[in-house]
Design brief:
Order of helices and strands: EEEHEHEEH
Strand content: 25-35%
Radius of gyration: 25 Å
Shape: elongated
Largest sheet: 6 strands, antiparallel
Helix content: 25-40%
Strand order of the largest sheet: 2-3-1-5-6-4
Structural class: alpha+beta
Number of domains: 1
Number of strands: 6
Length: 169
């Protein structure tokens, strides 16, 4: 667990592709998510960049506050809330950057824990589009689709005629 000194942890979605040169020790943390034990955020970023991959931090910090008695269970619940709130499937890791707990002076000494996290994307290519989602798979606008030779000649003739009209005016 991260502590008050700002030591961050990294969670990685199960099934996430990682560079073969990257050796990580992980343990199950939540269903579908593993906790990296031997690297923090900076260390993981460095190793990923060394392998030629791209670690990207997605915009905005996400936070969740929960109440309860057992601090470890509260942190897990807060992380589950963060993961549930991030609807995008484009991220595959989460860096928990801060955990702050407050003992309240209210009824039965209820405690509150706030967990802050940064969603991240680890991928082989550059940019926010994974290598498997290439632009070639996207539908092509009709004006850019391949056409027959007759249609192409007709379009070229139409362009020449309109250009001639514009230049003669």
């Amino acid at each position: 667990m991260p502590d008050a000194d700002g030591v961050a942890i990294i969670l990685i979605r199960e099934g996430t592709s990682l560079p073969s040169s990257l050796s990580t020790e992980s343990e199950a943390f939540l269903p579908g998510w593993g906790l990296i034990k031997n690297l923090d955020g900076c260390g993981l970023d460095h190793k990923i960049r060394e392998a030629g991959w791209s670690p990207l931090c997605l915009a905005g910090e996400t936070r969740a506050t929960v109440s309860g008695i057992d601090e470890e269970k509260m942190v897990r619940r807060a992380i589950m809330e963060i993961l549930a709130g991030l609807e995008s499937e484009k991220f595959n890791s989460l860096e928990v950057t801060r955990v702050s707990s407050v003992a309240s002076k209210r009824f039965l000494e209820v405690r509150y824990v706030t967990v802050c996290g940064q969603s991240r994307l680890i991928q082989q290519g550059l940019g926010l589009v994974p290598a498997t989602d290439t632009a070639l798979e996207m539908p092509v606008a009709p004006e850019f689709q391949p056409v027959s030779a007759i249609e192409r000649d007709y379009r070229e003739l139409a362009i020449k005629r309109s250009t001639a009209r514009i230049s003669s005016s």
